[in-house]
Amino acid sequence: MSDSTIPSTIGSQQDEEKAIQPPVVSESPALDSALPPEGGLRGWLCCAGGSLGLIGIFQTTYQETLLKDYSSSEISWIFTIQLALIWAPGSLFGRIVDTYGPRPVMLPCTFLCLFSLCMTSLATEYYQIILAQGIGYGLGAGGIFTTCLVCVSQWFVKQRGLALGVTVAGSSIGGVIFPFFLKLVMQDVGFNGMVRYTALFLGIVLVGAFFLVSARLPPKKWDSEMAWIDFKVFKNRGFAFYCLGSYFVMWGLWAPFDYLPSMAQLSGMSDSLALYLLAIVNAASLFGRIIPGHIGDKVGYFNIIVASAFLSCITILCLWLPFDYYASNAGLIVFALAYGFFSGAFVSIMMPCCAKSGSLETLGRQIGTYQGVIAISPCSGNSEHVEPEDVPDSDQELHRPSGHGVDVEDDGRKGPD
Questions:
Q1: Which Pfam family is an annotated match for this chain, by its short name (predicted)?
Q2: Which terminus of the chain, N or C, has less C-beta within 10 A?
């Protein structure tokens, strides 16, 4: 064999080896090299802005104020509608963010949130509260929620779990702050005044979020032929089963939170301790949304989300259900810590898992389609609540967390509106 044939032989062997090796698929095709080091300063500022934006996703209940003649199950539909609308329009908002960036969504949704709170403070009828708190505030909060998740996901790849965990931790921060803030304000100015002070506080927070949240990708032209909901993603069986599994987890994820205040009162816990109990839940959720996200960046997001769903279930079976027979304040506190952490981990890892099946250019539609699937679960899984007469406390001052914030009820003391 001549020397001239050796290079060609070696070259052909190298070509065969390359053909055998599987291609490396990037999580963000053609854009990873253009990204600054894991988001850079603008990326982390966007993350901070997203966390500020999600502080404002909260709920307020009316059992002892405006809707005394309505049952808890009827009142619960206000928050069921709000929670569903936080998720359902994700495909609409996500596509707008993909095309034009965050500003066209953040500005009107911020205004809608503040306007809805102002209208809530003026509402006197059930249908008015449904329109203001349920529909209006739900749509506004949903736009902010989707925008923050999409924009933060654009800035991060290798640390996406940590970044999104910090972002969704904003709602846990709100869950720690709002019980004390709303309780103190309501003692002085009454329910309506409390809602207006809340609107002022959220106005300041959301303005900060508006200027901090930014898109990694430049604006582009509107594609009229593009579908609002990307049904093609369901051809990926892994993604389809992930959506189905998430639906069933979300179907029951908030149920322990719904019954936690009533369970605390039935076990003899005081109202003040019940208030601290919800702060404990949200504080544990704060760590649960950040730490597992960071671990997921190292060991894989799907490993973490499966573990968090399993441990949340075990916590309910081992710590929650036995309360019917062995109720205690210590047990409730342990449950609040454990379930707050594990359920918070599931919430923080949902979007990194979803983002792995798409590219940066289509993150909005990808996340929005996923949100549309799981938006139905609150309507069927969150529709029943413990009635007030089942709780032996005459004051019945319940503070119900939603997973995105806190519910606070008036104690009957009124102040100037």
A1: MFS_1
A2: N
Q: Burial level of 29, CB count in 10 A (0-12/13-18/19+)? A: exposed
Q: What is the pTM of this model?
A: 0.76
Residue type for 388, please? P
**What is the spatial distance between Cα 81 and Cα 179, in angstroms, rounded to a whole number?**
22
Q: How many helices (H) and strands (E) does the chain have?
A: 15, 0
Name the residue among 22, 138, 145 with its Cα closest to residue 85: 138
What's the pLDDT score for residue 48?
Answer: 78
Looking at the DSSP assignment, which residues form a beta bridge with residue 401?
Answer: 406
| pLDDT of the residue at 11 | 47
Contact between residue 367 and residue 355 where contact means Cβ atoms under 8 Å apart: yes
Note the pLDDT of residue 109: 94
The rounded distance, in Å, linking the Cα atoms of 233 and 96 is 19
Cα separation, 200 vs 194, in Å, equals 10
What is the torsional sign of CA 314, 408, 126, 201?
negative
Contacts of range 225-229, beta carbons closer than 8 Å, 24 or more positions apart: 226/95, 226/365, 228/91, 228/92, 228/95, 229/91, 229/365, 229/368, 229/369, 229/372
> Helix axis angle, 160-212 relative to 103-122, nearest 10°?
70
Which DSSP symbol is given to 320?
Answer: I
Residue 149 tokens, joined: 């998740």
Contacts of 159 (CB under 8 A, 6+ apart): 38, 39, 294, 297
The answer to whether the CB of 415 falls within 8 A of the CB of 120 is no
Rounded mean pLDDT for each run of 10 residues along the chain, 417 residues in total: 45 42 39 52 74 60 66 76 85 86 93 93 88 92 89 85 88 79 79 86 89 85 72 81 88 76 72 75 90 92 94 89 74 90 92 76 76 79 48 39 40 39
For the domain covering 38-383, report its CATH number.
1.20.1250.20
Which of 274, 279, 403, 284 shows the shortest CA–CA distance to 342? 284
What are the structure tokens assigned to 115, written together?
Answer: 């306007």
